[in-house]
Amino acid sequence: MTQAPQAKNRRWVKHAIGGGITLICVIAILRLVKFSEVVDALAHFQWHYLALGVVSLGLGYAVRIFRWSVMLSATGNSVEFKNCAAPFLGAIALNNVLPLRLGDVVRALVFPSAMGVTKTAATTSLVVERLIDLVTLLACLALGILAIQTIEIPPALKQTAVVLAFLGGMTLAIGFFFSGSFARLFNSLGGSQKDGQTPTKLQHIFTTVGGLFESFEVMSRPRVLGLMLILSMLVWVGESGLFYFALLGLGLDASPLMALLVMAIATLSTLAPSSPGYVGPFHLAAFTAVTLIGGTSAQAGSYAIIVHLALWLPTTLVGALAIWSRPALFKAASK
Q: Which residues cross the membrane (predicted)?
């Protein structure tokens, strides 16, 4: 009886922390910019560049969906691109409007019923996807910091970026190369009960984790892994296109490497707890990144608003339409 209220209280604490971080970030930005200057910068923004950026973003999301179909198909399920599009886009839209990345939970545990894949395969694909994206973003951050010579970056920040990228790569490599050993270990722990004895809760957890590592091992086969890494690079090239064209729209003399750096900083900020839609941390991170490459506070403030809307609004609208077009996504789970 006491577990439910405790769980509810923990959720409220998480919401309060996220809301508090959002409020702090918004206050910090308001102290750094003048509203009239931001409005003026928005008025002079060259909006045709934003259209090019949204097209680039759309291409990146198409690659994301294809990458997910590749991962799911590697587990033995024949999952086509069209079968993955609505669940993927719907989960993104839910992430945009719900707290605590609940869209990811829905994609892993609810949508698989209508897709004909197991929850284990869907969950593993989500974990692999997040790990590869994190390592790719850390590599983009390190590359941008080390390659851009026109801005002064503290040596400690350069070293931190390189170390994080290295540690992320090592963690991913360990997960891929030793996933089979981990699967056998956890399966042996989960299957050690006597004949006729009901598995304990801990043994059930071990068995579940073992199943995840089994799917992880399948997805880490050299051919599949190589394709996923190539697709992941294309994903972030497409997304960085939005950041690049938005910089051009503000009249900044920006290079693709600068856009890569800004994208890495802004996207990594979404790991921090915040309100739905990553309001606050994303804006402060984008603002900081643009000022780092030479933009004014007015340009940085307007840039944060424009890029956030360009990321949030199209994906939310398209995702909502995707869910509406496939009501079976939720009906199959309810059955």
A: 12-33, 45-63, 131-151, 163-186, 224-248, 254-271, 303-325
User: Within 10 Å of residue 204's Cβ, how many Cβ atoms?
Assistant: 13
Tokens of 167: 């540690």
Give phi and psi for 253, each to the nearest 5: -85, 80
What is d(CA 323, CA 90) in angstroms, rounded to the nearest whole number? 5
Q: Is the distance from CB of 296 to CB of 284 less than 8 angstroms?
A: no
What's the whole-number mean pLDDT along residues 275-297?
91
Which residue is listed with tokens 């970026």? 161
Looking at residue 67, what is its pLDDT? Answer: 96
Query: Quick one: tokens of 3?
Result: 């577990």
How much helix, strand and coil, in percent to the nearest 5, is found in the chain? Answer: 85, 0, 15
Within 13 Å, how many C-alpha atoms sit on residue 288's CB side?
A: 16
| Closest CA relative to residue 145, chosen from 130, 160, 133, 131 | 160
CA-atom Rg of the chain in angstroms: 22
Closest CA to 322 of 43, 108, 20, 87: 87
Torsion sign over Cα 167, 170, 172, 175: negative
Q: Average pLDDT in the 179-186 region? A: 83
Q: Is the pLDDT of residue 194 over 70?
A: no
CB 238 within 8 A of CB 59: yes
Q: What is the DSSP letter of 150?
A: S
The DSSP call for residue 118 is -
Contact 312, 96 (CB under 8 A): yes
Tokens of 233: 């690079």
Terminal alpha carbon distance of the chain:
27
pLDDT of residue 176: 75
* Strands annotated E in 191-266: none
Does residue 29 register a pLDDT over 80? yes
